[in-house]
TrEMBL record:
This is AraC family transcriptional regulator. Keywords: DNA-binding, Transcription, Transcription regulation. Residues 144-242 form the HTH araC/xylS-type domain. The keyword Transcription regulation applies. Pfam families: HTH_18. The keyword Transcription applies. It comes from Lipingzhangella halophila. InterPro entries: AraC_XylS_family_regulators, Homeodomain-like_sf, HTH_AraC. One of its GO terms (molecular function) is sequence-specific DNA binding. SMART domains: HTH_ARAC. Coiled coil: none annotated. It comes from the Bacteria.
Length: 245
């Protein structure tokens, strides 16, 4: 069960998970990177058959109100298996800190909290607050196109020019705008998505660690193992062992 006003990001693959909201149940196929949210209603999960790994975020109500420019409560709209590069990038940063038991600098942590609140208020709270001077980041449509390109070609060579083309920007402008929007450089985002795909492949079984590493574009197995652990907190053997259970 998740409590009200939660934003969650799944980092694991699950099929036909039962999600119950407001007494209504829905079967959902979950992919790594899917975003879920609920407003004031609690969310119930059942029939989770595979190892589950998710990050739950509960935004500070005061920060949400400040982002919306309101004194009254702000409700987050329900989301089911949404794709959102900004939420995913922030969640990946928080997950990495948790996996490696490191503390985020107070300024950096608060900047992530305010960036998330601003994004939620703008797109998922039914509010279009007056921002004054526009931000220099990417708009939602461009972020979606970039995410779609990364996910579609996650096991192929990708360049900054490929991603910039999806956003219809120059590579320099794209790299700067993407990081401003997500808090993560483009190459970090691509690596994170590749490692989540690698984790899903290892958990399915059938492929060895060297085979998965090669498929994800790594010629050095040691480097692949290091990046997998850095991004997911698991070594290949742990994931393959879970697949055989």
């Amino acid at each position: 069960m998740t409590k009200p006003q939660q934003v969650g990001v799944s980092f694991a693959e699950n099929s036909r998970v039962e999600l119950t909201r407001c007494g209504r149940s829905t079967a959902v196929d979950i992919q790594p990177g899917d975003v879920f949210a609920n407003g004031w209603q609690e969310l119930y999960w059942s029939r989770v058959t595979r190892m589950d790994e998710a990050l739950e975020i509960y935004p500070d109500p005061a920060v949400l109100r400040a982002a919306a420019g309101r004194s009254s409560a702000v409700e987050i709209e329900p989301l089911t298996a949404a794709r959102d590069a900004v939420v995913l990038a922030i969640a990946a940063r928080l997950k990495r800190a948790h996996v490696h038991d490191t503390c985020l600098d107070g300024v950096y942590a608060s900047s992530l909290a305010h960036r998330l609140a601003e994004h939620l208020v703008t797109y998922y709270c039914g509010i279009r607050p007056d921002r004054g001077r526009p931000r220099g980041g990417l708009d939602r449509a461009r972020l979606r196109r970039v995410t779609e390109v990364v996910d579609a070609r996650v096991d192929e060579p990708l360049t900054i020019s490929d991603l910039a083309a999806a956003a219809h920007l120059s590579p320099f402008h794209f790299a700067r705008s993407f990081k401003e929007s997500t808090g993560m450089a483009p190459h970090e985002f691509v690596t994170t998505r590749r490692m989540e795909r690698a984790k899903a492949l290892l958990m399915r079984g059938g492929l060895s660690a060297p085979e998965v590493a090669y498929r994800m574009g790594f010629s050095n197995l040691r480097h692949f193992r290091q990046m997998l652990y850095r991004c997911t907190g698991f070594m290949p053997g742990e994931l393959r062992a879970g697949a055989s259970e």
